[in-house]
Amino acid sequence: MAHQLGLNLPSRTALGRDAFFVAPSNAMAMAMIDGWRGWAGGKLALTGPQGSGKTHLTHVWADLSGARIISAADLLEADIPALARGPVAVEDVHLIAGEPAAQTALFHLHNLVLAEGQALLLTGTGPVAHWGLTLPDLVSRMRGATMVEMEAPDDALLSALLVKLLADRQLTPKPELINYLMTRMDRSFAAAIALVDRLDAASLAQKRPLTRALAAQVLDIAPPRT
């Protein structure tokens, strides 16, 4: 079989429901997204480590509900009343921990969305209590949100994530390469994302196929015996 060389093609991240791999570590989160019409108080806080699939699930929910998606850091520039006319997903709330004005904007958005009878999805890294929010009224609203956490990946999920990340870059790895990576990489979502970025960059820069030898170079370990 011919080797697959890296090509400088645009990365196309698949964010649809069919591309989301359901595993024990994220099944509860997926169930909550599917049952979004029944969220207590009309809101949900989705938490988990970087790269755990929060953005993917946010897009799945947007497809289901017609929600608009906005980063918490962009709220200051947003038309809050216009946003509140429909379901809204606010991503990376933890990133406005030191931004009082952005927290105030989120507080007003929260109140308007729920007053309009719409639904609100909030995402962040780590438990809501650790998001570092300091506006008392906003903190109290966050305490009232149901929280669902996406847990660290098991083998099946981490393997599927590697395949998906490579596919997003138009690369189709052989199963033995995935197994090789799985036994040598740091076992986290963030590590998988960083590793695929490095593999893709090395393949493009060196015009080499994506093989175990290239993976060994990227991982800085002795190359496998042939």
Automatic annotation (TrEMBL):
Give the Hda lid domain ranges: 167-218
Domain of life of the native organism: Bacteria
Pfam families annotated for this entry? Hda_lid
Protein's name according to its UniProt entry: DnaA/Hda family protein
What high-level taxonomic lineage is stated for the organism?
Answer: Bacteria, Pseudomonadati, Pseudomonadota, Alphaproteobacteria, Rhodobacterales
